[in-house]
Amino acid sequence: MENKTTLDYVVEVEDLTVAYDAKPVLWDVDLKIPRGRLMAIVGPNGAGKTTLLKAMLNLLTSVSGVIRFLPGETGDSPKNKIRIGYVPQSGSVDWDFPATVLDVVLMGRYGLLGWVKRPGKNDVAIAKQTLEKVGMEKFSSRQISQLSGGQQQRVFLARALVQEAEIYFMDEPFKGVDAQTEKAIVQLLKELKAQGKTVVVVHHDLQTVADYFDWVTLINLRVVACGPVKEVFHEENLKTVYRSSGALLKSRV
Ligand code: ADP
């Protein structure tokens, strides 16, 4: 079993409470995200998974508590700032302005360019290679608004990947994608982990989490458990969150 006290953490959340219209939807969240892991946030519909992700990204207003990003000894960006890649849920962004798929992916490079600079040949090459990785190279000159939800999701993934971030937050990256694309995305997640990146993924399918992730936070309006998948996915925890257990997992973890 892993010794949690010796782990190197990249994010620490303390006493986080989040409300919409003065109505709390997440209570007293304490959470530590270990560096270099694939961590899933799982729980039923309406459990507050997206809310937790957005709160950590500082995208919400009614938030109390502490969220700390901790730079590593090596590899993190200068000035102790951790570069964060975010893949929003498909359908959550309304593209009513003209932008091609390539334009959208290139947006991910701007943080690396500094002021005034425009993306150059190298950035375009990186964007194209990344579109190829997510199987979207044929769509690079299409308008993003013309794509399906699953296709947009892959473009957002490419946009996050070109950012060369240290930590990635992804909201349901498997939503609306076919089995082949799911495999390709799993492969990308593994590559990010192999590069020492931290990846936090909101996901609803416990089996995928059991198969591919090494860390999990189980939530239902509060954190029920957080730790290695094998420790967290046990009958009692799953019953607390879903009111049923084994049937949700096709095989034992
Ligand atoms: P999950 O991602 O686990 O499905 P969410 O974080 O999307 O859950 O939602 C948690 C709760 O907050 C739900 O009851 C949802 O209806 C509510 N909620 C989410 N977004 C908003 C919002 N913008 N305004 C008001 N309530 C919201």
UniProtKB/TrEMBL annotation:
| Keywords noted in UniProt | ATP-binding, Nucleotide-binding, Transport
Residues covered by the ABC transporter domain? 11-246
Q: Which PANTHER family match?
A: IRON TRANSPORT SYSTEM ATP-BINDING PROTEIN HI_0361-RELATED, METAL TRANSPORT SYSTEM ATP-BINDING PROTEIN TM_0124-RELATED
What name is this protein filed under?
ATPase component of Mn/Zn ABC-type transporter
**Family membership noted in the UniProt record:** Belongs to the ABC transporter superfamily.
Q: Which organism is it from?
A: Desulfosporosinus meridiei (strain ATCC BAA-275 / DSM 13257 / KCTC 12902 / NCIMB 13706 / S10)
InterPro entries on file: AAA+_ATPase, ABC_transporter-like_ATP-bd, ABC_transporter-like_CS, Metal_Ion_Import_ABC, P-loop_NTPase
> What GO MF terms are annotated?
ATP binding; ATP hydrolysis activity
Give the highest taxon in the source lineage: Bacteria
